[in-house]
Amino acid sequence: MNKILNNRVVFICVNINRDKEFEALVNEGTALVLSAGYTIVETVKINRPNIDSKFFIGSGKVIEIKQLKTILNVNKVIINHNLSSIQERNLELELGLTVFDRTSVILQIFASRVKGSEGILQVELAVQSQLLSRLVKRWTHLERQRGGIGLRGGPGEKQIELDKRLIKERIKSLKVRLMEAVKQRQTQRKSRLKNDVFSISLVGYTNAGKSSLFNVLTKSNVYAEDRLFATLETTSRKLYIDANNEVVISDTVGFIRDLPHTLIAAFRATLEETINANLLLHVVDVNQALKERQIEDVNYVLTEIKAIQIPQLIIYNKIDLREELIARIEYANDGEPTAVYLSAEKNLGINLLHQAIVEKKLWLKQKKNEEKVAYEPWKQ
């Protein structure tokens, strides 16, 4: 019974300045909360011209939520936005409830699903980094002094200073262990570069179908499910297209709007496969009402990890759900393949994707040669 009670939450979504995509964002937030294992008892939608600096949702809504708490018998509130540590603390003190923001929910999903040793380290690094930024809400007794030595801190050290030091030491230890994994991956990458292997990385919004496409292309059995963040770790396989085109393709963690900076930083090691790829297959769910915004969100993360300059081929997936769409390749005026429409689940257009990859390789090679001629004309 307690476990059931602990999973019951009030879900709050704030529509700032009448966002036209608000309902789609509510649906995405709902999927996140459900993916984290919570039961939404009530969804509260709030319209505001701007955020409230103290409570985010406004003092009037705080009173309403306090009344709902008793009626609905819940002990948690989840807000579909990122809160400052002060806002989170103020809400918890005023409501008498545990408050989670969007970042906290994403971290919970990652922590519950990650399996590999490196992924576990990355999630813990993200959690510790998040905790470090949230210490202000953990302690209301900042004036208390503690004496002693060792783990209790030096003479006169405040509790928050002690906690910060311990967390920073843990973060430092995690980064050292992750660097060891990075070095191992760099050794493997050097071997591929030595053999002039063309590398491709699948990127895209979470639940766009990257893992399904990866499985179809490589005849693998990587875990794929219709839910957010089904894949949390990088998997690489060889993809044989023809005698002259054998590539290495990698499936990576999906991105999402407002992906926490702590997670971007923590998963940078895993995302190195993306950073060092020759080509990105940017997978998009063609049926998503927010697909253009999702493309922007993915490109934002790619910018954050310094991978935005890598050539992309847009993959519009799940065309089987739209009668008017057919499998095809789109080209720019100069002949560059720019997009492929396909369905990974129905195996539609996969041959066209093979063709587009080969053509993209040739186009990139030709472009590189042209740039080399322009830069070194005396060699011609």
Describe the structure.
Strand 1, helix 2 and strand 2 form a beta-alpha-beta unit. It is globular and about 65 Å long. By secondary structure, it is of the alpha/beta class. The strands form three sheets. Strands 8-9-7-10-11-13-12 form a seven-stranded mixed beta sheet, with helices on both faces. It has three domains: 2-100, Rossmann fold (3-Layer(aba) Sandwich); 112-174, no CATH class; 189-377, P-loop containing nucleotide triphosphate hydrolases (Rossmann fold, 3-Layer(aba) Sandwich), CATH 3.40.50. It has 13 helices and 13 strands.
Task: Characterize this entry briefly.
This protein has 380 residues and is an alpha/beta fold.
